[in-house]
From TrEMBL:
GO BP: modified amino acid catabolic process
Catalytic activity annotation: epsilon-(gamma-L-glutamyl)-L-lysine = 5-oxo-L-proline + L-lysine
Biological classification of the source: Eukaryota, Metazoa, Chordata, Craniata, Vertebrata
Protein name as annotated: Gamma-glutamylaminecyclotransferase
SUPFAM superfamilies: Gamma-glutamyl cyclotransferase-like
Length: 156
């Protein structure tokens, strides 16, 4: 099992959360809520208003999201879904645990004791330079006050 941190459309209540609970794509178990230890720019960009975490550590905000434990099948699905490695790159990042629901195992004890876990995160280093000047967000919500409605893949 691998740990994945999601900050955009895959979170609970967001347009692509359905994929996280579709067991035909693999298993994803919600572990808790967290935020990046380092600051990153989270922007909403492109004609489909997709959230992107730009891999520029130290710029932007601590980004809020959810921590999941996923099996190899789900990790492979997420790689494909996120267009890895072209659109997003899957990298390990330190995530500060805000609220932990995970049960059992050494990982839980270590996570709660230190308050930080390492998770795979889909961020990007392959983006147009003008995205750096877009507004930065600390928490993505597809129906947030930014007014930029996410366009589902089925509708593109």
């Amino acid at each position: 099992m691998a740990r994945v941190f999601v900050y955009g459309t895959l979170k609970k209540g967001q347009p692509n959360y359905k994929h996280m609970i579709n067991t035909a794509k693999g298993l994803a178990k919600f572990q808790g809520r967290g935020r990046t230890v380092e600051k990153y720019p989270l922007v909403i960009a492109g004609k489909y208003n997709i959230p992107y975490m730009l891999n520029i550590p130290g710029t932007g905000h601590q980004v809020a999201g959810e921590i999941y434990s996923v099996d190899d099948q789900m990790l492979q699905f997420l790689d494909e879904f996120e267009g890895c490695p072209d659109m997003y790159q899957r990298t390990l990042m330190r995530i500060e645990v805000v609220e932990w629901e995970g049960k059992g195992g050494v990982g839980e004890a270590r996570a709660t004791a230190e308050g930080v876990v390492e998770c795979f995160v889909y961020s990007t280093m392959t983006y147009p330079p003008e995205w750096v000047s877009l507004p930065y967000h600390d928490n993505y919500d597809s129906s947030g006050k930014h007014g930029l409605s996410y366009v589902l893949r089925e509708s593109r």
